[in-house]
Amino acid sequence: MYLLRTPIRDYAWGSATLLAEFQDRAPTGRPEAEMWMGAHPSAPAGAVPASDPESLPVPLDELLASDPEALLGEAARFGRLPYLVKLLAAGRPLSIQAHPTLDQAQAGFAAEEAGGVPASAPHRNYKDDNHKPEMVVALTPFAALCGFRSAVDAGTSFSRLAAVLAENPELPEDSGLSQGSGPDAGRSGPADTPARAVAGYAERLLGSGDGGDPAAEGAAIESVFCELLDPAGNWASGTWVAAVVAALAKAPRVLDEDLNLATAVGIAGHYPRDPGVLVSVLLHRLDLAPGQAIHLPAGNVHAYLYGLGVEVMAASDNVLRGGLTPKHVDIPELREVVAFESVPVPYCTPLSDGAGHLVFRPPFEEFQVERLDLPAAEGRTLTARGPVIAVCTAGRVRLSAGPDTAELAPGESVFLGADEPAATVHQAHPADQTHPTDQDEAAAGTLFAVTLP
Question: What CATH number is given for 351-451 in this structure?
Fold first, then answer.
């Protein structure tokens, strides 16, 4: 068993407080976005034998390379530790993004390697040759945009927005929102104003959804998505975006009625001129309670908005971004990987044995996620198909595997190789207490463990 020394990535969208509060430590004053527990070469965790916790950490990817058959077991078929575990702490919206399929990742990576694009280049799209299906389990209230809504639902929101624009004659003359008062005012037509553009989107989406044709619906979603994000289009300068948000801010009743439009205004507080603000209208807005989970296959457009969660994915850092970010945006490449289809929210409902043990099994071959809640799961043995990464998310948890023992507090984690004895889970209490108190019960331990399905 190895204790993990985990790097924290300080991406701009990270929360300055969520991880610090979670680990009961002082904030650093910097955004703390992701704690990485894995062997991805971008930020491998350090591994320290549990039997010698004061020794120098060895990067986990180097440790695995020293004996892949023993440490990875049947996971060696992937050629790497197949998953990456993170604690994700979003203080502001992440980029609108999607991830490639395995074939797309392999082709994109090979092309950029052949083209001599440096691995660290900010304009590089493919950091590795792997896909990145993922899931997230909320630890706090967690908000996200996830997958395209039905064309009718999205069209209805754009129709409401068009009505708001038509009812705002006092908008600034230079905003592009002035429509006149003739019979064609507010109707779709040449996209020479955002009002006309929005009305056109509403008409296009509502029309495609009426016939029950998934191909037509997907084509309408794709056209609106790509027009909004066109770097040479009318929305790119941000003037239209800012003016539309200003109009919505004057329509509180509409915002109360339409969660997606309210979400767009909220996102604009962080990215006031970004066309991704309007893209959010196309996507499901969902709010996860602690313990709820979603899974995201390749091609699913998504953006996490705020909250702390356990995120697990195939071991990849490949992200194609479309907005809400200062990082590289490549709309043509994003368009190639996005699945333009309306989908239901991909909730991942766990299986439960009723004794403090839950198993999340998304439809991916790289991982499953177990959650063990103590004291109900006291003495439970972890499922161990292949290697295991386990992280404590509440209270204190003690893991025992053969002669090795590790006691974990929130945010602390371990790696167990495939050749190690199965680990058992116990509630840990302060050394000076023999019996738990009511306060200890309130802080009962929770452990998440990731292994092969």
Answer: 2.60.120.10
